[in-house]
Structure formats: C-alpha cells, structure tokens
Amino acid sequence: MLRTIKPKNARSKRVLDARQPKEVEDPRTAIFVKGTHTGDVLNNVMRELMALKRPNAIAFNKKNAIHPFDEASTSIASLEFWANKNDASMFVFGQTTKKRPHGLTFVRMFDGKVLDMAEVGVEKWVGMADFKTPKSTPGHKPLMHFASELFDTHPRFTQLKSMLIDFFNGEEIESICLPGIEHVISVSCGPTPAALNNATAIAYASRPKPGANGANGGSAEETANFPKVHIRTYTLNLLSSGTRIPRVELTPMGPALDLVLRRHQPADAELLRQAMRRPKLKKADVEQGLGKKRKNQEVDEMGDLRGRVHVGKQDLGKLQTRKMKGLKAGGDAMDVDSDEAGRDGMDGDGGEEDAGEDSDGFGANPRKKRRSKA
Description:
Layout: H1 10-18, E1 30-34, H2 39-53, E2 57-63, H3 72-86, E3 90-95, E4 103-110, E5 113-126, E6 143-147, H4 150-153, H5 155-168, E7 183-189, H6 198-206, H7 220-223, E8 229-239, E9 247-252, E10 256-265, H8 269-275, H9 283-288, E11 297-299, E12 305-307, H10 331-344
Parallel strand pairs: 1-2, 1-3, 6-7
Antiparallel strand pairs: 3-4, 4-5, 5-10, 7-8, 8-9, 8-10, 11-12
Region (Disordered): 1-22, 280-374
Subcellular location: Nucleus, Nucleolus
GO cellular component, one term: nucleolus
C-alpha cells in the first residue's frame, strides 16, 4: 500500500489531480516488464510494440522475477505497486520458458487493481526494419480492424479484442480528418474450426473457471483448437479517384506477429461492473452538450434535461368545441347579413348603429332598424 501523499506545492498538487478519476480518461500508459528469461525474440517483439505505443510507453530494462499466473499474490502486489507509482493502467510482461516459449502477457488494471490478464505465445514475427516502407508518426491513433466472427462470439477472443483495443487506443477525440489516419492495425484469425461454433462458445463462457480468484490455467488441450491470431500493420495512402472519396491503398509497415492463445484470467464480476460504470454528467456539461450545441434543449435547476417539441400547423376548422348556435354552418352567412345591415343603419353624420349583435356577439339575432325622427 502506498502512503497518502499531501501536496506541498502547486506543482505536486497538479500531478496528483491528474491521477484522479476522470469522465474522459487519458490514454492508457503501458509498462513493458521483462522476466527472468526473455531471449532475442521477446526483446524484439516488445521493442516493436513499444514503438507503436509511444509516447504512452514505459520500459523496465532490469529483469524482474515475477510470475503473474504461478505466483499470483506476490506478482499482483508488484504490478499494483508499479501501476500506482507510474500512473499506468496496462502491463506487457515477457517471459520465456521451456514449457511456454516466447510468452507475452497483457495485464489490464482498474483503480490500481488487476482487472484481467491474457497470455499469448509469439510463434512468428517480422520487424519494422524488414519492411523498406514509410512509417507512421508516433502518437497517432491507429484504425483497428478485426476480421473474424470469433472476436464477437468466443469469450477468449472477445477478451483479446478488448485488450488490444485498450492497448492501442490513444486520446479520445470527437472527429478526425482523413489525412490524420496514418496507419491501420489489422487483427485476423485463421480458419475457424467446427468445434468453435456459437453454442460451444456460450457453453465455455458459462462453465465455472477453476483456480483461485477466478484464474484459469488454460491447458494445452483447451487452446489446441484455437486458431492463430495474425496482427498486421499497414500505412494508408490516399490517392486521387476523381471523386470526393479518395482511393485507399495499404502498404505493409510492420511489425507482423503470429500469436497463439494460452493462459488467461477473466475479470472479477464486481470489479468489471465498476469498470463499466459510466459517470453521471454534471449540469454544466449537459448544458454545453459536451462541447456540442444542442438546439431546443435546456437544463433546469435540478439538472434534468428538458426539450421543446415543435408541432406542425394545426387546422382549427376541425376542432371540436361546444355545439353553439352561432358556430353552426349557417352562422357565417348570417354574420355577413348583419354586417351589411349595420352599415346601412349609419347616417352620413356618423349616427349610431341601427343593427347590433346579440348578447353572445355572434350576430345570430340581428335587431330591427330604427327610424330616425324628423
């Protein structure tokens, strides 16, 4: 546990405030940790992933004797300590053994605690230096593409998809221009075997997970039928097409990785529910519409959003009212006769009207003309 730090000046206070929870979080910072044995393959793969993650990447050059799946208590304590100290929410841990060579573990954090973990094995890789093509600018958000139905149906591939999106996701933006998209990360799977259909995936998700704290070892028999995951990175070339929409060409940039799924630890149900909870918007944010002007909407003193609805022009001739004598169909003609009689009753000197309206003012019973006395 880290001790509570009280800021001594304005600079330290700004740093502590930046680490507080936010409605729109900053890009996830990933820490790359080396195990006791890594080898050239894992070192190069972690270097390539860190090049795609920059500038939100931190590298630990020293070797660390931690095992997230085997020694869960001590390893998780070390990861939580590093996460709180460096304000990081993701880890990429590399470890190679005789039983699991070239293992790469993605660890995702929430509120300073380990949320879930997924281990993959690197079977083949090609670095950026092997592709003699232009590279993207560091810090740009990539366009993610997942080409397999397993990423939406099978829980293991769904977890990997969510992990990769959080790893490569950058700053939250509302809009982006086409020249701002420089590279694409395509994630695909091999041919889906018949054993991994939708029903099998649902049964796999509902099965109780063995191990402590929901950890699942993921034996080789369970992951043997899983297809390989292929990660490819391309740069975008926008060419002229004669229309407003340009013609897009993809150029391999690297790195290219072939991964296999291994062990994993699903997220705790209560911790996942807290992580998926959306914060309530403040009144000022609702009024501003999160930076977008909203027409015919306002917020009252209680913070409730209210809107005005404009209806079309109404035909009052078909409006149902009281069945009065003056509102019948013949009432208009009688009003015209009454007006003509009133005009005839006016003398040249501006005398008073000889014809008047009834008590209701509808002219239903016009009075008789009065004769003027000589």
